[in-house]
Design brief:
heterodimer, A: 294 residues, alpha/beta, Rossmann fold, eight-stranded mixed β-sheet, 11 helices, B: 388 residues, 2 domains, six-stranded mixed β-sheet, five-stranded mixed β-sheet, 13 helices, disordered N terminus
Chain lengths: 294, 388
């Protein structure tokens, strides 16, 4: 068992209102403590907004601006530029958004911030749907997943946001998982030291939204990594791909079968998903091989 | 004459470039802007100033007016003085965030060039774009000339920062935005004395573990709007005192309302923006013909100076409201506002609302003279009527 190793500066308080067993709160604790005290957060409507808390409480120690849903990256840009004007270039400006606010309604503002290479750290807690509004489909929802607005299963695939962001040639894009918290902390630490737009997408198995047991979110996230459904990797400057974890040693069925949103799948459906994951994995690892020097 | 005036410059400027000169003198820290006709010359002049090294604001060029306003709000809450400019579809796209800005009590200054809103497409002077934002909690001031636009945009920072409310200043597309006149550009020293640096007591910054805009319960939401109402109630006095102080240092004073030959008038024409210039000329010729006409210029539209409007029009026999806008199903917005402001007065004028200049159609002096003769003795109708 890996020991979780990150500095706890008390940047995230207990008593917040995340669902019991939610790994978004766990990830948030690691991220906020790694980012440290010299930081300002922008939080659009999302589970994170609820976890951060309503007036007059706050579960996070750093100042938070609650933005509108579609404007987190633009709002973070505004905070950053104001801090630059005030002679505070080193303060980390961080977005804590969900996948609806990132893949869907916030994509236009995020693309523009990335094009301007604004000096912000954008964290997307990707629970693959609008879980804070009760579990509807977003463009991050994977093929076949049942949601409140796709009761027979989604008929199209998950948007590949990483490739869209890579096309912007921003300095750093990474995936991370609450199953690998040291890796998450290392990626946040690395992003802190880079000027420009950094995006980290964290897979968040949603207990009610995915139909996962209350004690199984970390295990589900780990299966996501180990089956290759959600590989952990980094993309630097849009071209240099590096695998954070080189293994893909389990069939996707193990990941799918622990989630109620997939329980309608036939053997053929699962085989098709396996083929798709294998193909994506091959594409990703060959990019990573091609990125290695020599 | 104050000494500072000797260092002012007289330049030939369009209305939009006059705005850019005023903004430069106001020294904003952050300026997010998105281009749109006919606002773009404001943006381009500011980026010219930036490239020549005389304007050191952080300039953001995001992908939309929506993101521009989003950046304005967060930068303002971070303690920066913020400016942006827009027009027409742009201010419409901002609508959600205009509410957000005032609710957050962010004293952003925005210049809006009044232009028709599609569909159909048009590029013509019409004030519905900003009038349709009247419920968003922004201070709204309408300017008549390039000089007034320069003077007002500087005053707007002081007004917005004093009231902790965002302020928009508006002028008409082309009639003001692109018309060129000699404009007195005050010295930087004069403006520095008039408009000290923006230093809010509290802002979004490290060391202050505050949340801005977090969800609140019903009572606190209600309280936020009552506090905004309290701030709005201070604005008319701030506009008047700021305009007077500007007058003492530049010899060009301004008020929430402005009167031209209106003191003893039997017929008062009420309007906003560039049409005021035409009305001044009409008032003079009507006076030459023995008709006691006057102009009441509504410079401050939000908050509406209700009590001052009642005082200005008490005992006046007849008033004509000229609206360069049309609210479908209701009529002219200024006409509607005037009816509301004058409610219950026993000595209110016979009030006529005329939809004049909607969509940018020309309203020459001859038309206004005709309207005066058409309506001066007529019984008023509660509905606005279209100018023939």
């Amino acid at each position: 068992m890996e020991e979780i190793n990150y500095p706890d500066h008390g940047q995230f308080f207990s008593g917040h209102v995340a669902c019991g067993g939610c790994v978004e709160a766990l990830s948030l604790r690691v991220i906020l403590n790694t980012v440290g005290v010299d930081a300002v957060a922008v939080v659009p409507p999302s589970c994170t907004a609820v976890i951060c808390g309503g007036y007059p409480f706050s579960s996070v120690k750093i100042p938070v601006f609650h933005s509108t849903l579609e404007s987190s990256a633009a709002s973070a840009s505004g905070v950053k530029r104001a801090l630059l004007a005030k002679g505070k270039p080193d303060t980390t400006v961080l977005c804590l958004a969900g996948d609806g606010g990132t893949y869907d309604i916030g994509l236009q503002a995020l693309s523009s911030a990335a094009e301007r290479n604004e000096d912000i750290l954008y964290i997307c807690f990707d629970n693959e749907g609008y879980m804070n509004t009760g579990g509807q489909k977003s463009s991050s929802t994977p093929l076949s997943a049942v949601t409140g607005s796709t009761p027979a299963g989604k008929t199209t695939r998950k948007k590949n946001l990483i490739e869209i962001l890579a096309a912007h040639r921003i300095p750093m894009i990474a995936t991370a998982s609450p199953s690998d918290l040291n890796d998450l902390a290392a990626k946040v630490e690395k992003a802190k030291g880079i000027r420009g737009t950094k995006v980290i997408i964290v897979l968040i198995p949603c207990l009610p939204g995915w139909g996962v047991a209350d004690n199984a979110a970390v295990q589900t996230a780990r299966l996501g990594v180990e089956t290759g459904v959600f590989p952990l990797f980094e993309v630097e400057d849009g071209v240099k791909y590096t695998m954070s974890s080189g293994k893909k040693n389990k069939p996707v069925e193990e990941y799918l079968k622990v989630q109620k949103r997939y329980r309608h799948l036939s053997d053929e459906d699962i085989a098709a998903i396996q083929a798709d994951v294998d193909e994506e994995w091959g594409r990703l690892t060959s990019r990573a091989s091609a990125s290695r020097p020599g | 004459m104050p000494e500072a005036q000797d260092q002012s410059n007289r330049l030939l400027l369009s209305g939009n470039h006059a705005v850019s000169w005023g903004v430069k003198l106001a020294r904003p820290d952050v300026t997010p802007v998105y281009p749109i006709t006919p606002q773009t010359p404001i943006l381009e002049k500011l980026t010219d100033f930036q490239s020549e090294g005389t304007f050191d604001a952080e300039v953001l060029t995001p992908e939309s007016e929506h993101s521009a306003m989003a950046a304005c709000i967060s930068a303002s809450l971070t303690g920066a003085r913020v400016f942006t400019a827009t027009s027409s579809q742009g201010i419409m796209l901002m609508h959600e965030l205009l509410h957000y800005a005032s609710g957050a009590r962010a004293p952003i200054v925005m210049f809006n060039v009044n232009r028709t809103v599609g569909s159909p497409w048009g590029f013509w002077p019409d004030q519905l774009d900003s009038l349709a934002q009247r419920d968003t909690g922004w201070i709204q001031i309408y300017s008549e000339t390039p000089q007034e636009s320069l003077d007002t945009v500087i005053q707007a920072f002081r007004i917005a920062e004093a009231a902790a409310l965002p302020a928009m200043v508006c002028h008409d597309a082309f009639y003001v935005s692109h018309s060129v006149e000699e404009v007195e550009v005050p010295s930087q020293d004069l403006v520095n004395n008039f408009l000290p640096a923006y230093e809010p007591e509290i802002c979004l910054d490290t060391g202050i573990g505050k949340s801005f805009g977090a969800p609140v319960d019903q009572a606190n939401w209600n309280r936020s709007r009552q506090e905004m109402a309290g701030a709005m109630a201070t604005v008319e006095d701030i506009v008047n005192s700021t305009g007077q102080q500007w007058g003492t240092v530049t010899s060009r004073g301004y008020g929430a309302l402005e009167h031209y030959r209106a003191a003893d008038a039997e017929v008062v024409i009420v309007t906003m923006g560039s049409m005021c210039g035409t009305v001044r000329e009409v008032v003079d010729t009507l006076r030459d013909d023995g008709i006691a006409a006057g102009l009441l210029k509504v410079r401050l539209f939000r908050p509406l100076p209700t009590q001052s409007l009642r005082q200005a029009l008490a005992g006046v026999p007849c008033a004509l409201v000229l609206d360069r806008n049309y609210s479908p199903g209701m009529g002219g917005v200024l006409h509607q506002e005037l009816k509301s402001a004058l409610f219950g007065m026993t000595d209110s004028p016979r009030l006529h609302g005329i939809l004049a200049g909607v969509g940018g159609v020309n309203v020459p002096p001859s038309k206004i003279r005709h309207l005066v003769s058409q309506f001066r003795e007529a019984e008023p109708s509660v509905e606005s009527v279209w100018m023939e």
